[in-house]
Automatic annotation (TrEMBL):
Organism: Alkalicoccus halolimnae
Name recorded for this polypeptide: UPF0223 family protein
Pfam families: UPF0223
Renumbered residue ranges of the record's region Disordered: 66-91
Length: 91
């Protein structure tokens, strides 16, 4: 992952919550670059949703991340959900 990316984070989150969000975005990056385990990816997304339960807030964070990286977290999640027979998510 590029070191110049500003992760879409909130100052209201705990350290553990920040780690969960960063781990999810790192999994998105892996899905775009070399692939990531589907179950691992979906678990990280579930952890992300515990921190960001609001769909509107999720969309904003996804948009911020995509504008910086060109990688769509939405497409990665959609692919992971749709490819139930696959063990990996790769875009």
């Amino acid at each position: 992952m590029d070191k110049d990316i500003r992760m879409p984070l909130s100052t209201e989150w705990s350290t553990e919550q920040i780690v969960d969000v960063v781990n999810f975005f790192e999994a998105v990056d892996k899905a775009y670059n070399k692939g990531v385990g589907r179950n691992e990816f979906l678990t990280l997304y579930t952890d992300f949703k515990k921190v960001v339960p609001s769909k509107a807030e999720e969309k904003q964070h996804f948009k911020d991340y995509e504008e910086q990286t060109g990688q769509s977290p939405y497409k990665a999640v959609k692919k992971a959900r749709e490819d139930q027979g696959s063990e990996f998510v790769s875009i």
